[in-house]
Fold this sequence. Notes:
The protein has 367 residues and is of the alpha/beta class. Helices cover 49% and strands 20% of the residues.
Amino acid sequence: MIADPLNRFSILLVDDKMENLISLQRMLEGDNRCFYLATSGNEALKTVLRNNDIGLILLDVQMPAMDGYEVARLLQLNPKTRDISIIFVTAINKEEQNVIRGFSTGAVDYLSKPLDVNVTRAKVNVFEKLYFSRRELKDVIAEKEKINKQLERFTYMVAHDLKSPLAGAISLLGMISEEDCIQQSPEIKDQMGTVLSAANHLTEMISAILDYARQNDTGSATESVDVRVLITDIARLLFPPPNVRIVVDGQLPVITANRLKLQRIFQNLISNAVKYNDKPDGWIAVGVTDRDEFYEFYVKDNGPGMQQRDTDRVFRLFERLDYHGKEEGTGIGLNIFKMLVEEQGGKVWAESQPGHGSVFYFLWRKI
């Protein structure tokens, strides 16, 4: 009798001869083991689908109607069963072509008939340990994701609660800074400007944290998006300074996408390019290259650029680079950009040269 169901290791034995199944079960019996028996490929598939606790399958290769290779192939096709470990049990000579066929259909090991008791037990013991290690790892990952969700909610609440009183404080500081006594003292006026600058930077950081906490809540609904119109709208709403032009390189496509996600991506890249541009005649260009399954979008500028070694660092959370005295960012925006792209199968990268601007690329999967 199994004392603790949590420590149970369930094994499915598949062979068209019942006497072989009984013999194999007796060979492998243990206090924490549970066995399912199947005498055909169809019965094996039904058993796996009915029982989600199976950790290992010992599968006979030579069976009538449906052989072991076909059973393994069908199990591989199902996302719910593809991770179950399979050991082929076979009397066939293990020629290279048979071994390759077995591994390509999902087998992880072979046992040759007649079975060696010690070898069979040793291999099953290894897969039992592997099963519990994988289950423990899944539990750890699930717990980590749960904690991350709790931290995201906590971060959102704290940032949200801080934003309103800070906005009030900034407004009050702005009014105080206009008083005659402040304006008439260059030293106090300069100090007040420093305080206001710090408070505004803190507001930006809180807004960025709110965006970061909200990014997982972005809806998944898709619609037809004219990227040229999207870029035009973003450029108009950002109010770039007169010395910075936002242009489109060539034709931009009409794609099926989540509009909000795509807007946040382009807005993040373009606003950064505007913010840090240090040229009297600045420009930002948005373009695309068709890459089969993906659109390769880019946002290029003639700003200050950065060292090539920093093109990976810039995407890390809270990583801020030295822009030669320009206003610092929060180190959050580009990390959100990276996550939004990667969560739908794309990737991001950057190319840059100090003094000659940067190009930010991202792959957007076609639907």
